[in-house]
TrEMBL record:
Residues 1-19 form the signal peptide. The chain crosses the membrane at residues 446-464. It comes from Nonlabens dokdonensis. The keyword Membrane applies. The keyword Acetylation does not apply. The lineage of its organism: Bacteria, Pseudomonadati, Bacteroidota, Flavobacteriia, Flavobacteriales. This is Oxygen tolerance protein BatD. It comes from the Bacteria. Keywords: Membrane, Signal, Transmembrane, Transmembrane helix.
Length: 589
């Protein structure tokens, strides 16, 4: 009876602990115009972990999340609040629902109540979330620079997209609304991982700029062609008239939609005057050669003849001239070998067609010269190159065909030889039957082995169940193991989001926090840099390792306010893996 009463009291206390957790969502307004903004705050009265915001369908996140933590002591008892704040802009009218946010505390999952916002049509004088009027039209510009707006057909052009930002203005991130489309062009994006902010000018004024994207285009038709624009929604930080204690201006964050605009390309046709008969569409600057791997051989043997064009130009888009040979030489269809790379200057490398040739009779054979023509857009003229004749010396006669067991078939120039007397050798023509004695499973050796093994496994099952019950009763250990699993999960999520600035650093920060909870058994609210470094030192972590870990925490915090390149994110991910591995080795058990 006492045990039952204790169990009931334990259940009641657990429910009271759960009931004390307060996790709410509060919107600044429930009715706004489509050209106004809204603030929503997610607040909890406990140190919850793994906060996951809703997907904000029907809204665009203008700023956030802005995180705040406060802790108070009254009559010896502490209370704390932690909040995440977002600034939203509607993208449609009507009743729009902000879905539930989720967080976990003490192994339990909590959700907010959905918020319904009534979005009306646009108003003439929209109010900002803080009733501030901010102009950012002259602070940020998106430009598409085209290397040549009047190229020849199949001549390479380069498109570079740059974002210009005025001094005293910051950019915290951007979302791509429309991607450029390259209709009627062969295109390839150029990898630009080493992004660096540079100083430059825009309309004669000093600006900073960043190269966002580069692409190489080869026009595939003549006339007026359009390059569709790149459009971004950029989160911009603008200085206000307010100053802090040191005289520095406070910054306010707003968003601006910028577009590079359409670009028109007028493509010229290749000149008809002077066009050689051997021209097959090559545009650029090329070298040309034809060679064989041997000049002397016996009848019935094979050799390889290669036609190669190398240099810079539309290598992947052009055709090589065909090899012509005397009728007494069997020439097989060529095999194409591409060694072409594309960089900011266009395609460069070589393409080769390799022909297999088999002479049937002895004698001297002359392979006629091969002519190759291309158009050089820099010189604006056609260039023709000739390989010259090639001489083959073949000794002996071709193999005889008197063997009645061999037939020859030709299909599209490919020669195949099949042996008639062996074509059905894989089929067995004799069969040997074996009598099968009837056997029964019941009362057999296998039956008694399985039954006896089941009884032997029973003690192991009971022992395993006891260990599981002991493990479930270990509340602190379960929290540590859960935090360790979450750390690995979020580190893996960070790796998948390399290239997505916000998601990468949110996942990396969650991984580091859960790792600290697992190894040092401290809560998120206690994770100051000084305390973390002190606890790591007490557990035996080396100075350099502690320094690297604290730098990673600082990078995650700093990354909320400044954009990072893919190379920086990859470096931080590799550094996190290395530092966590070093701490595992150095910490005292």
């Amino acid at each position: 009876m006492k045990g039952f009463i204790f169990f009931c009291l334990l259940i009641i206390s657990s429910w009271n602990a759960i009931a004390q957790v307060d996790f709410t969502a509060t919107a600044s307004r429930t009715r706004i115009a489509v050209n106004e903004r809204l603030r929503i705050e997610f607040k909890m009265n406990v140190d919850g972990d793994n906060f996951t915001p809703p997907n904000f369908v029907g809204f665009q996140v203008v700023a956030g999340p802005s995180q705040a933590v406060s802790q108070n002591w009254v009559n010896g008892q502490s209370s704390m609040t932690k909040s995440y704040t977002y600034i939203l802009k509607p993208t449609k009218t009507g009743k729009v629902t902000i879905a539930q946010a989720v967080m976990t505390y003490d192994g339990n999952e909590y959700k907010t109540i959905p918020q319904v916002i009534n979005v009306t049509g646009a108003v003439e004088q929209p109010k900002d979330v803080d009733d501030n009027s901010i102009r950012v039209d002259d602070s940020i510009h998106l430009v598409a620079e085209v290397s040549n707006s009047n190229p020849y057909l199949n001549e390479a052009i380069r498109v570079v997209y740059k974002i210009y930002v005025a001094n005293q203005t910051g950019v915290t991130g951007w979302n791509e609304l429309d991607s450029p489309k390259y209709r009627d062009f062969w295109s390839q994006n150029i990898d630009n991982r080493n992004q660096q902010v540079k100083n430059g000018t825009y309309n004669g004024e000093p600006y900073r700029y960043l190269v966002l994207r580069e692409a190489i285009l080869y026009p595939q038709k003549t006339g007026k062609l359009e390059i569709e624009p790149l459009t971004l929604d950029v989160q911009v930080q603008i200085p206000t008239n307010k100053r802090d204690f040191f005289g520095r201006p406070y910054m306010t964050t707003t968003s601006k939609t910028v577009s590079a605009g359409k670009r028109e390309i007028v493509v010229k046709n290749l000149p008809a005057v002077g066009r050689p008969a051997s021209f097959t569409g090559a545009v650029g600057d090329f070298d040309f050669k034809v060679e064989t791997d041997r000049a002397q051989l016996d009848a019935g043997e094979s050799l390889t003849a290669s036609i190669t064009a190398s240099g810079s130009g539309n290598l992947k888009l052009m055709e090589l001239p065909k090899l012509k040979a005397p009728q007494s030489l069997e020439v097989y269809n060529p095999e194409r070998n591409n060694k072409v790379s594309t960089n900011i200057n266009g395609m460069r490398g070589s393409i080769t067609d390799s022909y297999t040739i088999v002479p049937q009779f002895g004698g001297k054979y002359v392979i006629p010269p091969v002519e190759f023509s291309y158009f050089d857009p820099k010189k604006e003229q056609y260039v023709t190159k000739n390989s010259g004749e090639m001489l083959l010396m073949v000794e002996g006669d071709a193999p005889t065909t008197a063997n009645a067991t061999t037939t020859t078939s030709t299909n599209n120039g490919d020669r195949n030889i099949i042996q008639n007397n062996a074509q059905f050798a894989f089929i067995k023509t004799s069969t040997q039957l074996i009598d099968q004695e009837k056997t029964y499973f019941f009362n057999s050796t296998t039956y008694w082995s399985i039954l006896g093994g089941s009884f032997l496994l029973l003690p192991l099952v009971l022992l395993f169940r006891k260990q599981q019950e002991k493990r479930s009763a270990d509340v602190i250990g379960n929290r540590v193991r859960t935090a360790n699993k979450l750390s690995k999960k979020y580190l893996s999520t960070a790796k998948k989001n390399i290239g997505n600035h916000e998601l990468f650093y949110v996942s990396l920060e969650k991984s580091l926090h859960n790792y600290l909870r697992s190894k040092l058994r401290i809560q998120t609210a206690d994770m100051s840099k000084d305390k973390v470094e002190l606890l790591l030192a007490e557990r035996g972590a080396q100075d350099e390792t502690r320094k690297d870990f604290v730098e990673l925490l600082a990078s995650c915090e700093f990354a909320r306010y400044t954009p990072s390149s893919n190379a920086t994110m990859k470096e931080d991910y590799e550094k996190a893996g290395r530092v966590l591995n070093d701490i595992d080795k150095q910490l005292k058990k």
